[in-house]
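Notebook entry, cofactor series.
This is the third protein in the set we're modelling with a bound small molecule. For this one the ligand is pyridoxal-5'-phosphate. I'm keeping the input format identical across the series so the outputs can be compared line by line later. Sequence and SMILES below, as received.
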Amino acid sequence: MSPTPDIAENLAAVKAEIATAAEEAGRRPEDIGLIAVSKTHGQDRIIPALETGHRLFGENRVQEAEEKWPALKERFPDVRLHLIGPLQTNKLARAVQLFDVIETVDRPKLARKLSEEMAKTGRRVDCYLQVNTGEEPQKAGVLPADLADFIHLCRDELQLPVKGLMAIPPVDEEPALHFALLRKLAKENGLEGLSMGMSGDFDIAVTFGATLVRVGTAIFGGRP
Ligand SMILES: *Cc1c(COP(=O)(O)O)cnc(C)c1O
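Returned structure with ligand:
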């Protein structure tokens, strides 16, 4: 494990960078949510972030989140937790219990089961649809060409609370092209939320209209 970084200082620096990028783009900084991605990190790094007043967090695995967050949510009840990693249908009920937002809705079967689970429990969890903007075979996400139909299924047929789109651009390509594509797809389909940008490119994502950025390393330091 690397030595614990100064989490409060890192958070403040990331927020300042978001504000600068927003102002340069003629946007209001408060229109951009910073998801602190705490995957792999323990309470020793998460609690300092919570103590600054930060409340928006992201995790990529259901099981890991279940081990860390119920106790933290009891202590900090206004936490909002986003699932940003792939969701298997056998963990879906647990994900709906714990998470406030699921950003990785990416296939009809999952969408149908989510809709059933929300109807059964009465718990509404905001959804983002993950788009495979780079059309990478190994990557999750609906292909851009299939997106309009998928949105129709999720939003109109299943009545899921679809808030926007999410993407993880290919590592070896210019992220701006993917951010621009995601923004275009959202606009064409009447969606407002855009979850895009990570430690290396969140400022560019803000320029291209991100309403949520997902930042891990720049806040919590490197992962083991
Ligand atoms: C881990 C992860 C992030 C954060 O990545 P960093 O480069 O550490 O900021 C963002 N989005 C997703 C989907 C992730 O899995």
